[in-house]
Amino acid sequence: MEKKIPLKDEAFLQHPILFVLVLVSALVIMDPLKMGPLGGREYRPVKHSIAPYKQVMESWPRDNQSRLGRLGKLEFVGEVFGPESLEFDNRGCGPYTGLADGRIVRWMGKDVGWETFALVTKNWSEKLCAKGTDSTTTKQWKVEMKCGRPLGLRFDKESGDLYIADAYYGLLVVGPEGGIANPLAAHVDGKPILFANDLDIHSNGSIFFTDTSQRYNRVDHFFILLEGEATGRLLRYDPPTKTTHVVLDGLAFPNGVQISRDQTFLLFTETTNCRLMKYWLEGPKTGLVEAVANLPGFPDNVRINEKGQFWVAIDCCRTPAQEIFSHNPWIRSVYFRLPVRMSFLARLMGMKMYTVISLFNDKGEILEVLEDRNGTVMKLVSEVREVNGKLWIGTVAHNHIATLPYP
C-alpha cells in the first residue's frame, strides 16, 4: 500500500498559532490600513553614523535646576505661529521671524504689535495660507508648498537686505523695506533645491545655506530621520555671478549654519547624527570637515554671540534604542511598519522630548547648558539668539517665543 505523505501546508495549517503569527507578521509588513508612521510609503532605511549613547550621555553636563523652564518667559503667546528663526536689523529693531503661514513678520513695539514685513511668493493670500493657531499643525502642511515656509533668516548688516532660506522656494532676498522677496537660488546643477533650511552670509558676500535632503521636502522631514538617509548638502550662492555651487554633499539632515567671527570656518548641524560639524573655509585645513561635538539630542540652528561663542538649539534627548536602530536598518524597517502611532513607538523607545540649549566655544567645548525638562517654556526648540543680555528662543512647533535673561 502506498503511504500518504502529509503536505507541508497541511501540517502548517494544523498549527493555528504559527499560522496567526505569520499572518500578523505579513500584516505588519504590509500595513494595509496605513496605521503606522510610514503610512504605506516606500521606506529605505540605511545605516548611519552616530556616537555611542553611553559615551555621549555620561560626559554631557546636566542642568539639574532646569533653569530654562524655571526662569524662561513666554512672549507673544498666540501671536506668532512657528517662529523658527529670529533676527534683528542693523538698527537693532526686531525681532523679525518667519512663520508657519508663510509670512516674515517684525515686532513694531507694543503700540503697533506685529506687522507683515515680507512674503516669499505672490501666491500668498490670507484665505489660503493663514490658519491662525492651526498653522503649527498638519492642517498647514497641505498649503505650505504654495504659501512658503521661511526658516533661516539673516540680515546683511551693510545693505540692510534680509536673506531668507525658505523650505520650498529656496534662497531669497528682500530689501530693507520688505515686500515680495526676490528668488536667488531654487536649483543647483540643474536639480531643484527641495528643502532649503538655514543660511549665513560671508564677509565676501557669499551665502552659505543648507539643503536638507534631495529626497524629501519639509512636510516629509520626519522620513529623513527615520531612514537615516544622507542626501543633504551645504550650498554656496555667489551674488556676482548669480550661481549656486555644492560645497558638501552626503550629509544627514544638515540644518543650522553659522560662520565664525574671523570667517575661517563655519559650523553646521547634522540633525540625524546628533552632532555639530565644522567646515574650514581658510587656512591649512581649508575644505576639511570635522566633528566638533556629539550632542545628547537632535540639533537645529546654531547662532553666534558677540564673544564668538555658539548657541546650539537641541531637541533632547537620545535613547539607547536610537544607537541600535542607527546601526541596524532592518530593525527600523520592521519597527516603524508596526500599525501603531509614532507617539506610542517613541515612548516604547524611551523618548521624552524636551528642550536643551547649549553654548560652545570654537573648539567644541561646552560652556553652558540650559534645560527645560518639563516643557514649561518649550518642548521643541529651533534657535537661540543672544541679544543685549537676553536669550531669544524660537520654535518651529509652538505659537510663541521665549526669552531668558543671560548671563
TrEMBL record:
Its main location: other. The keyword Membrane applies. Keywords: Glycoprotein, Membrane, Signal, Transmembrane, Transmembrane helix, Vacuole. The keyword Transmembrane helix applies. Residues 197-283 form the Strictosidine synthase conserved region domain. Belongs to the strictosidine synthase family. InterPro entries: 6-blade_b-propeller_TolB-like, Strictosidine_synth_cons-reg. This is Strictosidine synthase 1. The lineage of its organism: Eukaryota, Viridiplantae, Streptophyta, Embryophyta, Tracheophyta. GO terms for molecular function: hydrolase activity. Signal peptide: none annotated. It is found in: Vacuole. The chain crosses the membrane at residues 12-30. One of its GO terms (cellular component) is endomembrane system. PANTHER family: PROTEIN STRICTOSIDINE SYNTHASE-LIKE 13, STRICTOSIDINE SYNTHASE-RELATED.
